[in-house]
Amino acid sequence: MKILIIEDEPGIKSFLQQGLQEEGFDCLIAETGTIGLQLAQNENPDLILLDWMLPELNGLELCKKFRKENSSTPIIFLTAKDTVEETIAGLQNGANDFIKKPFHFQELLERINVQLRSKQANIISLGKIKINEQSREVFKDEKLIQLTVKEFDLLLFLLKNKNKVCERKEILKAVWDINFEYDSGVIDVYINALRKKMAFTKEENYIQTIRGVGYMAKI
Question: d(Cα 183, Cα 34) in Å, to the nearest integer?
Fold first, then answer.
């Protein structure tokens, strides 16, 4: 698990990095809001620890900008601010949790684990593919893949039924809500589009064709 620490106070930054690495986390460090936003966008961290008061771009604005393109990565604010108005502002702009400075490391660690467990509950994976069902995001090799609504629904259905042969009529009913005789060639069109967008190699035969029957998601 990769945690991005966006904190400009040297003592807190060092304390967090050392403690989290001892717990087995990989840590990325940013000392300004601008660098923090860039790392959040480019490095796909599993969780972000975000200071409220930062140089260049404050934590609230960073959170707001990041949430416009990523709705699933948990964000925990580390802050001396504790008024109701400030807490509401943080939550409204995408924060998942707050912890007030100074804090005990074990309390922070438990809050981190709660957020990561919640995130993992929404993740369905197969090989190098990860789907976040709640945020409707798809990743391959940690890279975000842009899919249409039906492409996402089709991939999600196959992965929810991985290692099981999905018949064409099942797929039409689940993805297109079609319960009558219909040309199932539409499925082939979308499968081909998925394979192309996901850039599967010959070794990554994750969506297998079961001739005369349908498709199966399998490693």
Answer: 51
